[in-house]
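Fold it.
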Amino acid sequence: MNLDLSWILLGLPAAFILGWLASRLDLRQLRIENRRNPKAYFRGLNFLLNEQQDQAIDAFIEAVQQDPDTSELHFALGNLFRRRGEYERAVRVHEHLLSRGDLSETDRQRAQHALALDYLKAGLLDRAEDALVKLEGTPFQAQARLARLANCERSREWPQAAEIARQLEDAEHGSFSSRLAHYLCEQAAAHLAHGEVTQAQTVLAQAISTAPTAPRARIELACLQMQQGQAAQACVTLEEALSACPAAVPLIAAPLTQAAVTSGRTVSVLARLQEIYEQTPSLDVLEALVTLQAAAGTTSTRDWYVHHLEREPSLVAAAKWIAGEKLEHEQFHPQVQRALDHAVKPLTRYRCAACGFEAKQHFWQCPGCQTWDSYPARRVEEL
């Protein structure tokens, strides 16, 4: 009994000493790790500020390995992967965050949004849609709806895009009436592709009602009426467009001229366009006036080019006027005309105001940046 008690008396101090040594070792190890973690983190931040993304990723990976519970490091690492185009690795990082049970609700929503962006950048639209839908009712709801709207536009799902646009408008995130009209015009084009003329006319009428000041629906309705042999009705539609959409007059002038000549309303349309031109000169309206005067039998149509040059300098108008002139050295006229025509080609294009993409024809949605209504109605020379 004495032997047992002596062992206990000897063991208690030894256990105390061993416990104290273990705690000191744990504290020392903790201090070492705490010193090491910030160093790796700040080293990665320094690389990132110097645009050295490869070294930054290596540093952040080291920091994450040393402290796998730090969510901020995971977010930084996932965003870096996405910026570098390594979408699969970005997805793995954000999915790992979502699988953690200790993640706060705010960080969970943030990780869900980051995962949706990964899928969008990777072009996985179906997965992106599923991830974005889960953000309804969160602080990321507006951003998610805008991303879903762009997603629907890319996949040409116009009814669904219209529904999301209405939700955004109801939530007071801006007016989407013009974009809704574009969606209806796209649906009308689909009806026409299947030979459904009546349905196309109904949808275009709905588009005009949705956005009365947007020119596209009226122009496309007039073109459809021309195809159906209703030139007089097309002329009325386009004359209404002149009043409703004054900024789009250069786009309306050409189809209006064709409808006026076909329906025999040359004189009245000529007077209307001449009045508009005197207030706001335009190359397209100028060309429409020349065409209408020629159809009316006027011989001095080319005087309009001189009149335009008196009001403002224009290489396009000068080239058109010279095309019908007799030069002193007429044998060189073809070469001079070719040079002028080559020089004015870039000036007759349309340029996107959002990204600068230039095209021969006018687009309602820029093929470069996918922005709606970013092409002004005027040519490059007039900007």
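Residues 349-383 form one domain.
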